[in-house]
Amino acid sequence: MNIINRNNVRVCGKGAKTIVFAHGYGCDQSMWRRVSPSFEDEYRVVLFDYVGVGLSNADAYDPVRYSSLAGYAKDIVEIFTALDLQDAILVGHSVSSMISLLAAIKIPHRISKLIMICPTPCYLNDRPDYIGGFEQADIEGLLDIIDRNQPGWAAHLAGIVVNNPDQPELAQELEVNFCAMDPAIAKRFAKATFLADNRSDLVGFDKPCLILQCQEDLVAPNVVGDYLHQHLLNSHLQQMKATGHCPHMSHPLETIELIKKYLASNVKQN
After folding, report:
1. 3-122+197-264 carries CATH number 3.30.2130.10
2. Residues sharing a CB contact under 8 Å with residue 267, sequence separation 6 or more, in sequence order
3. Which residues are catalytic?
4. Is the pTM of this model over 0.85?
């Protein structure tokens, strides 16, 4: 199968170094349009859609493969292999932060560093040692409403995720993307996302990582960013002025600035 066509891979830019942008749950590569063009002068920029969303090849969707985040990580591994990328920078938003980490574990020579935007290794609370922000009943309720009322859950979740009421058009855009998903794929991706526990995958991971943490993020609260920073050996935690869970949409200039500042630094991050 042609991986480039399968994942609707788009390559642009003119730099010697490659930067790859991986979108979050229920989105597609268009969500990066406010950010990725700013890297095209210095980097070769790669954008893609996970199988099952956006303009990916729907015929390639395998419900068994995509029942876990490992299946989505395999998409990244196959894209990097198809393009023969070496020492590339991988930027992941939300669940793609952990998907990217799983991919980096598989192909360490192809990925030099990770940029994690609003990441979380586990959404579920595991008291008293870990707070992810959600109780089991919260997730079960979300999965149930996906079955019963796709427009309803899409509007509800989009508002929670964006959490920028002064920019209602962003929640509307996200809602449209959620509604565009096949309901069965939406629920399966939601289960893979919100029931995942990647805390054990952090152990021993020493690739340089930038963690971008937003204010008032209802999906990945501050305590989650602190946890990741403590458990990733070579991470730098940056608290943003941005609010909500989608700074690449709501606060693109700050997102661009912080990523570029991190990448320009030759100092080992601690």
Report:
1. no
2. none
3. 94, 217, 245
4. yes
